[in-house]
Specification:
The complex is a heterodimer of chains A (296) and B (285). Chain A has 296 residues and is mostly helical. Chain A is 75% helix and 1% strand. Chain B is mainly α and 285 residues long. The chains are: A mainly alpha (296), B mainly alpha (285). Chains A and B meet through helix 1, helix 4, helix 5, helix 6 and helix 8 of A and helix 1, helix 2, helix 5, helix 6 and helix 7 of B.
């Protein structure tokens, strides 16, 4: 009798285990991450200044986007970020191949190359703003050697975004490099040897033997780079605050600006929803892989 | 190995390679070298245009002293705020994620893959779609402009990545350990605490250093959830001081170094854990 009631209790705690093990995480994640997503979508169908009452706006906020020149600049710049940031996996792979040698002290050197990733973007933004500074920056100094006049990169509406992207590439490349270095360290040596015997070398070896083995590293490098480029906010806030004349806006920055400074919560939320929808495409592909692996 | 290892016997080739590596490294770290060299320059060098030459005087103590002097700048307060925000966030996020990760890895209930997918997807969400509701919520709770707002939010948000990470680690542990403990009549809480938790130590260390740098380096949430000096972390503080110090680049440089250094130290002390955490999944199993 006593034994069976003890057994029942054991069964019960086992059955309920997912509830109390997952409970705290689900409450926190649900309250501060999942619920706000839906709330933002709801807000995007309203006019709201953040204090007073919300009034229904239907699709008005979304219709306005199409004729807002700032929104179009933001979209254009986000595409630019997305495309140019793809240099990070490429340069990262190149650096990884360059550094993949077993020589004493190489570990320390590799971690020095990784450095930029650890530093926060505020500092990176400051360092680069100052690097570009036409009066006292290093860039002006270097250009002087070649007899070229200083270029005020961040004050030039045609160059500002490019200047910020270069700053963004620095830590992102470091991240991709470390992914590829880890990938390279686990490349199957026998396959490489077999390739050598078959006469593969250099480019051919890289393309047909090494790269396929680096696929997992490539998938992660591309995912984090895409996400990173769509999320770009910190560097823009620090380096140009969207200027000059709004030329370096991206969706993330415009959303922040509309909500915090213009008190247009509904319009800001609509921009956030657009950004979220773009991101969903990438989330979908990533999750599809993960779930497929799970169900196997 | 690919590329072909450099011939061990050819000293000339090795020397050339090492020189090439050092040269590329120097260019790669040039922005950092520049900021370090500026942070030890006296202000008079900056105003007289000596930005890149030999510093006229070694002003390390002077500049960093100025940055940390509470009477002259709130940097020390920002630094303390960052610590007060980061350490509890990392601790809470890891604690609740370890439990959630255990359940998602071990218990076979319906909908577990959907929950797992939800935690992963949460990671990729653009911050902006959370901004207005989260900000409004903290205003209503009376926690806006306090370190608590940042601690609660970071704990919640980092739970996504942390749960994903720890679940994948626990899945790889031998399930027979759990099964035999169950046969012996151990409760789930006991199995988690006595068997799984000790085995998770390496994963917890990796995750700890990663979350530390993520939270320490946050700028967006500091900007959105906090206003005054009493709760500002160092990233936000530094960006605010940029306006105040305007042309005192030596002080901005010193402040930047101070803001960057904790993550750098954590990285160097726990390099192996950091990189294994960051690159998990980059290697074929």
């Amino acid at each position: 009798m006593e034994k069976s009631s003890e057994y029942k209790l054991l069964r019960l705690q086992y059955k309920l285990a997912p509830v109390y093990f997952l409970g705290p995480a689900l409450i926190m994640f649900g309250l501060f991450v999942i619920f706000p997503v839906f709330r933002s979508i709801w807000i995007s169908f309203h006019h709201w200044d953040g204090f007073g009452t919300m009034t229904w706006a239907g699709l008005q906020n979304y219709r306005r986007l199409g004729s807002d020149p700032r929104f179009l600049t933001s979209v254009k710049n986000n595409v630019l970020w997305l495309v140019l940031m793809m240099a990070a996996p490429i340069v990262g792979l190149t650096l990884a191949l360059f550094l993949n040698q077993q020589i004493k002290g190489m570990r320390v050197i590799k971690s020095m190359f990784f450095f930029p990733f650890v530093i926060n973007l505020v500092v990176i933004g400051l360092v680069f703003s100052w690097f570009y500074n036409p009066d006292l920056g290093l860039l002006a100094e270097i250009l002087k050697w070649f007899g070229i006049k200083p270029i005020p990169v961040l004050a030039d509406e045609n160059l500002a975004t490019y200047g910020i992207i270069v700053a963004g590439l620095w830590p992102q490349t470091a991240y991709c490099m470390i992914l590829y270095l880890t990938g390279l360290s686990s490349v199957d040596g026998q396959v490489i040897e077999a390739g050598r015997i078959d006469g593969a070398s250099g480019w051919g070896m890289l393309r047909h033997v090494v790269l396929p083995q680096l696929r997992p590293a490539t998938v992660i490098a591309l995912t984090v780079t895409v996400i990173g480029s769509l999320r770009s906010f910190d560097l823009i806030a620090i380096m140009t605050a969207g200027g000059p004349w709004g030329s370096s806006y991206v969706l993330a920055y415009q959303m922040y600006n509309e909500a915090i400074f213009n008190f247009k919560m509904g319009y800001g939320a609509a921009i956030a929803v657009i950004l979220f929808l773009i991101m969903d495409v990438f989330i979908y592909f990533f999750l599809r892989d993960v779930i497929r692996n799970e169900e196997r | 190995m690919f590329p072909t290892p450099i011939n061990k016997d050819s000293h000339a080739l090795r020397a050339i390679y090492i020189l090439a590596v050092l040269f590329v490294l120097m260019i790669w770290l040039l922005p950092l070298v520049a900021i370090i060299s500026t942070s030890i320059r006296p202000g008079s060098d900056i105003s007289s245009g000596n930005y890149w030459g030999v510093p006229s005087r070694f002003a390390l103590v002077e500049n960093y002293g100025e940055v940390f002097n509470p009477a002259r700048s709130p940097m020390l307060k920002y630094f303390i705020n960052s610590i007060v925000i980061t350490l509890p966030s990392v601790f809470f996020a890891i604690s609740i994620s370890a439990m959630a990760g255990y359940s998602l890895a071990i218990h076979r209930f319906r909908g577990r893959i959907a929950l797992y997918a939800m935690f992963i997807a949460g990671n990729f969400i653009p911050f902006q779609i959370l901004m207005i509701p989260v900000r409004t919520m903290f205003v209503r709770m009376g926690l806006f402009d306090t370190v608590w707002a940042l601690i609660l939010f970071h704990t919640a948000f980092q739970t996504g990545f942390a749960t994903f990470f720890l679940r994948n680690f626990i899945v790889q542990l031998p399930f027979s350990l759990v099964e035999s403990a169950r046969v012996e009549g151990a409760t789930e809480v006991r199995i988690f605490r006595a068997i799984i938790l000790p085995l998770m130590r390496p994963a917890l260390a990796s995750l700890g250093v990663l979350l530390f740098t993520f939270v320490w380096n946050d700028f967006f949430w500091a900007l959105t959830l906090v206003q005054s000096d009493r709760a500002r972390p160092i990233t936000f503080g530094l960006s605010a001081l940029k306006g105040q110090w305007l042309i005192s680049w030596n002080l901005i440089a010193a402040g930047s170094i101070v803001a960057a250094i904790p993550s750098v130290i954590v990285f160097f002390l726990l390099q192996k854990q950091f990189i294994s955490g960051l690159t998990f999944g980059a290697v074929k199993e």
